[in-house]
Design goal:
By secondary structure, this protein is mainly α. The protein has 2 domains: 54 residues, Orthogonal Bundle (Arc Repressor Mutant, subunit A), CATH 1.10.10; 143 residues, Tetracycline Repressor, domain 2 (Orthogonal Bundle), CATH 1.10.357.10. Helix content is 70%, strand content 0%. Keywords: DNA-binding.
Length: 205
Amino acid sequence: MSAATPSPTALRTRDRIVAASLTLFNERGIGRVTTAEIAAASAMREGNLHYHFPRKSLLVEAIFATFANEAEKVAGHLPADPEGADALLSYQRAWFDLVWRYRCVYRDGIAMVEIAPSLRGEVRALRQRTQALARRVFESAAEAGRIRIDHATLSRLLDNAWIVSSHWMNFRLQGKADLDAADLEWGFEQVRALFLPYLTPPTTT
């Protein structure tokens, strides 16, 4: 094993730090969590944390990279049965569950790019990639007769869905200290409502 290749132990430690950081960031906000708190949640000294992540920006970048990898998998996951009544609903639910698991990325987007400015371009690039993947899913659904929509309208629909998915948390946080499961369901219904006018009822045999 070369010196540049992290050992399995180091990789497990990094994963533990990223997982602990994500939990804290989701609970309290990216800009409000200190490296000392992350180290305590990771059951290590702060000096050991800095060995793996010398700067907080590197930790934020690692979380975003993990999110981006999962986001592309979810966005590009074609429903097994595109003609099924719940195919698109399940697809949208999987995306929304991902958003909830990484809600700090959406809720604290401004703080995220302030701490890690290099992510500004990555955020835009990820949006383009996931929208392209989602377009293929919905085009497949259109071919299967589950949605009636032209190409131009689909582009606008995906843009609007991205806007709502990205900002509904801040809207719901007005006058509240935190988000809960009821807020998650509310946000999901807002995105789902955008697609309902274009869905066709499932055929029965």
